[in-house]
Known about the structure:
The complex is a heterodimer. Chain A is an alpha+beta fold. Chain A has one domain (6-193). Chain A is built from 7 helices and 7 strands, in the order ββββααβββααααα. A 6-stranded antiparallel β-barrel of chain A has the order 1-2-5-4-3-7. By secondary structure, chain B is of the alpha/beta class. Chain B has 3 domains: 2-137; 160-250 and 340-513, P-loop containing nucleotide triphosphate hydrolases (Rossmann fold, 3-Layer(aba) Sandwich), CATH 3.40.50; 255-330. Chain B has 22 helices and 23 strands. Chains A and B meet through helix 6 and helix 7 of A and helix 3 of B.
Amino acid sequence: MDLGTKVAEVIEASSAEFVAQCYKLDQGPALGSLVKTEGELCEIFGIVYDVETHSLDPGRRVIARGEQMETQDEVFRANPQLARLLSTDFRVLVVGHRQGDGLHHYLPPMPAPIHGFVYICQLEEVQGFAQSLDFLGLVIDARLSVSVDEVVAACLRCFSRAYPDSHAFLVKAGKELARLLGGDALRLNSVLKRLR
Amino acid sequence: MAEQNLDERTRLGTVVSGSLTRGVDVKLDASISVEDMVVGRYVAIEGEKRRFFGMITDVSLEALDPRAMTTPPDVADPFIAEVIAGTTTYGKLRVLPMLTIGGDAVSILEGPQPVKTVPTHFSEVKLASQRDVELVFGAEDDRRFHVGTPLDMETKVCLDVSKFVNRSNGVFGKSGTGKTFLTRLLLIGMLQKQAAVSLVFDMHSEYGWEGKNEKGYKVKGLKQLFPSKVAVFALDEESSRWRKVSTDFVVKIGYGDIEPEDIELLRQTLNLTEASTQAVYQLAREFGDKRWLKTVLNLEEDDSKQLISKLNIHDSTYRNLRRGLESLRRFPFLVPHAVDNPVQRILEYLDRGINVVLEFGRFDDSAAYILVANLLSRRIYARYREKAEKAMGGDMAPSRPLVITIEEAHRFLNPELSTRTIFGRIAREMRKYNVTLLVIDQRPSGIDDEIMSQLGTKITCLLDDERDVDSVLAGVAGKSELKSVLSKLETKQQALVFGHAVPMPVVIKTRDYGSAESYKALGFLEAAELKKKTEKDIEGLWAP
Lengths: 196, 544
């Protein structure tokens, strides 16, 4: 996937998170990756925490169609309407915003605008954003539909790829986690184990 | 140089809690391994307004979550180990602040002062630099003598010798921990800085001419290093001859010099009963202080009977006494008539500023040692006292301070004897009469508490008996902290120094003694060099 390209559009938004629909089926960003969308006053950054593909019509369930076929592609070729009936959405936890020159690791004043375009951040942008690991506090404390620890680990793994010395980044991030989760050694352990 | 300084002043961590009495707790930075921290090491704390100097007294491991102890993290994984080091699990130091220097000009001029407060929260803690140590202990000069280096450092720790000789002092440590080497250094320090003259009662003949180290190699004694400033007196001429020691004087003590008090001190060693020691006083009254011993030893059976009935002494008491006194005959240095007066001789040497080492040769048992050391010291002390009193009246210049070195001090200074021996008095009366003690002992708990509390500076090598440690540290601020330092000393060449002559307690690696370089560093000149120096001095004398 070409990083930095437009991948989705905001279809639901609140101060703390937003939902975006992908332009292409099954082509959502990876779990934990950093995405951004243009707000009215600022650029809003978020971490993808849940990716879901579902039927657009809540009344029509997807049914299995490939019993007689060799590959998955054949299913889509034989049923071209499927691409229009299904949709890939992803949920994003807002972790910061850029207003003017200032990059802030806390919630923006306004939620992401509906139909705002969503981009996957470039490596340089990830590096810039992850210079401060203050956003980890927001993620750790969030109540999400998926396991927070999984999201944290996935996010740090994603971010570490932006660094030439990914180990050093992970150690730095691990120490920040240790500070946040100091009182809960078991949870810390389980997150740390997922960082590799 | 700047780089080296940076290295020395590595940041260790920050102050997180503590109190003045217990010391402050320092959380170690993740980059510092707890294994590099050793008790006794010096650190500097940069407070907000002043700098503090302290000593590490404890090192501990801490964890944020107590559950980490029961379900330890997977440290086999190097990543996890790296992350948790210094974060959820970290090292903690207990540092006892001891001295402080304020930031303003006046405080800097005043130099280090005792601490009366603690540094603020999160003050930075660093290893003390060489300069810090120099600032605290001063550089070697005409008053300060280099005794060793702090742990893991090259800086010299100096002892203020002029302060040292002001009080009685003690050197303690288990057998084989280097008390003798340390004492030799102290004696040399006093000699070199000319702060005092020493009289050493050298029980095992290891200070005067030469001694041996643990491996059996010979090391030079004081006389070999400073022939013009040290005289060796011998109690056992024969042993000196065998050992090829050039003695300056052979000590013989006349029966007339032995007083009833001397016998009383020997009560245990001579196996005398209480009644027979009392009988000695009766005999002395009967025959006179000078003649009683000789008379009693020469009494025939009949005369004895007459005597005891006259003095109303019980027969068994007399027998017990006679048996004890007879055993004094085995000492060849006790003679019916002494030709020369050893006390006079010793005083002559001391007056000339020459240190006297009395070697006991083969008579290294406690009976001979207690008898001779007491007897001589009592008379010497009396003379010093006389001189000091005359000096007070302005008739005489005050005499040079005298330091009497005694070994196995617990035999003289135990609670039972300390009030009776002259050494107990010297220790208590301190420097009033210019005489102080250097007490060397391996069993400090045997020494009277009152005497221990009077010792100005204590230098102690490893002690592992709880009672000994307690008695050495009695009355010291931060006792329990120093206790952990003391009990962790290495068995060789390490000592804890605290008290009057050092600004703060310090653990030192004692200065080398025994190698050619060490002799040179102590000011010893080989024969050829000495000749050259003398020639040069003579040339200087005649130069226009």
